[in-house]
Design a protein that fits this description.
The protein is an alpha/beta fold. The chain is about 45% helix and about 15% strand. The structure holds adenine (ADE). The site of adenine (ADE) has 11 residues, from strand 5.
Length: about 260
């Protein structure tokens, strides 16, 4: 996967991308990050790429020409997505990360100041993506967020164990709580089931915890999960009926024993 980032601050992209898992993936050649300075394409003697907005209003706008020249210098394949990071866009999600991870290369365009001249956006941008309903000072951090989420889906970037965990989020549930050694810390013990060695029970406990958390913190995700997993509720209902029947049988037996005593 090759990421091109069109930005006024390439050093910010390079330093963040060169650390941790993304850094390791770059070193091993699984991903490549090409941060290009839009300012290098300015024809202004002071390398400026911004100007006042027509119609008035506070702040400066990034001009069309340097952005367009920067884009053309990338020499992209014809179907390469060009993603403009903006709060006026579709909110980024795991599904979007999956979709974008299928491409060989992606372009992130980072705006600054009041944004970018709309004419160049209309000409080159294929996706407008927001990372949430708040306004940041530029598109660099949002593009790093997207690159991070996409990189971890590139085969080989994560180990098998870690990648399996993505699937549980794909499935709309939040992750269950996790614990490491020691088994008692500040008087708090690790839930007993996790040290039982019973994998079936552990799996059931984790699913129940994921459901509880999703219901509490992200009811929207829980609803999505619930509507696509009717079998979970059928199984629960069956187990409930079975337990009820068992309790009734025990009750009848106790009653009979009592009558026998009389
Ligand atoms: N640029 C500024 N704020 C942003 C946001 N919330 N998402 C994406 N790009 C942005």
């Amino acid at each position: 996967m090759k990421f091109h980032v069109m930005t006024l601050f390439p050093e910010l992209i390079e330093s963040a991308a060169s650390t941790s898992i993304m850094g390791r993936a770059i070193e091993s050649g699984l991903i490549e990050v090409n941060a290009v300075n839009i300012r290098d394409f300015s024809k202004d003697k002071n390398r400026r790429g911004d100007d006042y907005t027509y119609g008035g209003g506070a702040g400066m706008l990034m001009q069309a020409e340097p952005v367009y020249d920067c884009y053309r210098s990338l020499k992209l394949k014809s179907n390469t997505p060009v993603i403009y990071m903006t709060p006026v866009g579709e909110v980024f999600s795991q599904d979007k990360a999956e979709e974008l991870s299928k491409y060989d290369e992606l372009v992130f365009l980072c705006g600054h100041y009041e944004g970018i001249d709309e004419r160049v956006l209309d000409k080159i941008v294929t996706h407008r993506i927001s990372i949430g309903d708040y306004v940041l000072t530029g598109g660099e951090l949002p593009s790093l967020v997207c690159m991070d989420a996409i990189s971890r889906l590139v085969p080989g970037v994560l180990g098998n164990e870690e990648s399996a965990r993505t699937e549980s989020f794909d499935d709309y549930l939040l992750e269950y709580p996790q614990y490491s050694r020691p088994d008692e810390w500040e008087g708090e013990k690790v839930p007993e089931v996790l040290t039982s060695g019973n994998h079936k029970l552990i799996e059931e406990w984790r699913l129940e915890e994921s459901i509880k958390r999703s219901k509490k913190f992200r009811p929207d995700l829980y609803e999505k999960w619930a509507s696509s997993h009717p079998e979970y509720f059928e199984k629960k209902e069956k187990a409930r009926k079975k337990a009820l029947a068992k309790a009734r049988r025990a009750e009848r037996k106790a009653l009979k024993a009592e009558e026998g005593l009389k």
